[in-house]
Amino acid sequence: MQWRYALNIDWEFNGLPLHVLIVHAVVIVVPLAALCALLTAFWPAARRRLGIVTPLVALAALVLVPLAVQAGEWLQSRLVNVTPLLGTHTSLGNTLLPWVIALFLVAALQWFWYRYVTAEGARFASALPHGAGRLAATIVLDLVVLVSALGSVVTVALIGESGSRAVWTDLFTS
């Protein structure tokens, strides 16, 4: 997916490429959103405390990822030497957005489910399944949370590792 022309701006700040700065936010916010979603799914005390925070953190991740991709494409178009390692990083970078979209959607659905469906006196509790049906729906939701959280975190790790290799390979000795 090419984001290069979505926002026609210079992706630099004080002479530094913004990709480097935005990526640091991505590697913090995406795993944080995944952790919040997992805690909400599997720890009721955390669910009560986190509330709307989980989908908001996932929304922040959803905003940051396309910005990081676009800033990365801007940076790549200005590099003198595009290596195969950088090509790997770019290809992997384009795989994160679907995971983060899924993470945001399940975090928002999870918040709605636990706030408006399963909570005592919840507004929509009577309109949706009870007993085994509600339990099954909760289990499916929690499994989707688990898959999207793990997929997001693993993808961030793979992208970060490939980016580090693209930048640092052959630049120092051990």
Describe what you observe in this structure.
Helix content is 72%, strand content 2%. The relative contact order is 0.15. The radius of gyration is 19 Å and the shape is elongated. Strands 1-2 form a two-stranded antiparallel sheet. The chain contains six helices and two strands; from the N terminus they run E-E-H-H-H-H-H-H. It has one domain.
Number of DSSP helical runs: 6
Major beta sheet, specifics?
A: 2 strands, antiparallel
Using DSSP, what is the number of strands?
A: 2
- As a percent range, the share of helical residues equals over 70%
Order of helices and strands: EEHHHHHH
The coarse silhouette is elongated
What strand order characterises the main sheet? Answer: 1-2
The SS-based structural class is: mainly alpha
* Percent strand: under 5%
Task: Estimate nothing, just give the exact number of structural domains.
Answer: 1
Termini Cα gap: 37 Å
Mean pLDDT: 89
Please state the CA-atom Rg, rounded to the nearest Å.
Answer: 19 Å
Unreliable spans? none
Q: Which short descriptors sum up this protein?
A:
174 residues, mainly alpha, 6 helices, 2 strands
Chain-wise SSE layout:
Blueprint: E1 12-13, E2 16-17, H1 18-42, H2 44-50, H3 53-76, H4 84-93, H5 96-117, H6 132-168
Antiparallel strand pairs: 1-2
Helix pairs in contact: 1-2, 1-3, 1-5, 1-6, 3-5, 4-6, 5-6
